[in-house]
Amino acid sequence: MKVLFIGGTGNISSAVTELAVQRGIEVWHLNRGKTQSFPSPTGVQNIYADIYNPAEAAVALKGHEWDCVVNWIAFSPAHAQGDIDLFRGKTKQYIFISSASAYQKPPSAPFITEETPLENPFWDYSRDKIACEKLLLGAEDFPATVVRPSHTYNTIIPVGPGSCDYSVIRRLKAGGPAVIHGDGTSLWVVTHSKDFAKGFVGLMGRADTIGEAFHITTDEVRTWNQIYATIADVFECEPNFVHIPSDFIAKIDPKFSAPSILGDKMHSVIFDNSKIKRFVPEFTATLSFREGMQMTRAWFDADPRRKEPQDDWIRQTEAALDRVLAAWKNP
Fold this sequence. Notes:
Helix content is about 35%, strand content about 15%. It is α/β, with parallel strands linked by helices. The protein starts with a strand and ends with a helix.
C-alpha cells in the first residue's frame, strides 16, 4: 500500500507514521521540511512542497498515484476543495482529519457516537472542520473518509486554559498556580497518539470506510482535577491549582482560551468507540494517562529547548492566562 501523509511529523501523525512503517506500508510525507516534532523515520520518502500552494504541490506530486492520502493539516473548506481538485482520480482513499470538537456543544446526551449531530456555535475551528466534512463527503467521485480525533497527546501536555506546550509545568515549578476551568469535576478523555495510531492505521486503504466517519479515543475517562493532578505528579510539581469559572475565563480571554473551553473542554464527554472497534477489531487503547504523561515528560527532558515557548502564539496565550489570573485575584 502506497500512502501519502500531508504533514506526518506532528503530535499525532508521527505515531501513525511510525506504526505504518512498522507494518510495511510505503509511506511518503509531503511537507515543507521546516517544522517537525519528530523527524521522518527511516523508510519514509519525502516530497517537499507547500500544500497550500496548489500549483507547487501539483508539480511536486506529478506522476504519483496513491492507495491512501491523509491530510493532517487541512483546516478550511478552501483546503478541502484544493485537495479534491488535486487528488480526484489519483487516490483510492482520502482521509480527512476532522475534530471531535465538531460534535454538538453542549452535548444533548452523555455518550458521543459518530451519529451525534455536528454543531458547535462557540468555535470557528470546529465549524470549519464541519464545513470541510460536508464538502468532502458530498463531493462527486471523491473517496473520502473522516476521522475525528479528540484530545490526543504525545508532544503536548493536555490542559484546559492556556497553551499545551511546557507552560503549565513552568507555572507549577515557579510556584503556580495553574488554572483549571470550572470546578474540575467535568469528565474528559485524553488519548495517547500511539493508541490512536492503532485504530487509524487499521482504516487506511479500506474501501469499506469511504463515506464513513470515525472517532478514535481511549475508553479511560477522567475528571479535569485528575488530569491536572497526574500531570503535576509525573512532572514532580506541587499541585497548586486555582479553579476559575469557564464563563469568567472566556470573558477575560475571548481570543485564546475561550473558543476551546466553551466549544469543547467545559463539557463532559464519554466516547462510544464501538464503531472503530467494529471496523478495526484489533484496536484497543492500552496506555494509561499516567504512562502516556511519563512518555511525554521523557520527550521534553530529551531536549531542554522543547521546554521553552516555540512561537508568539504560545507567548500570547500564556499572557492572556496571566490576565485571567490577575482579574480573578483582583476583581
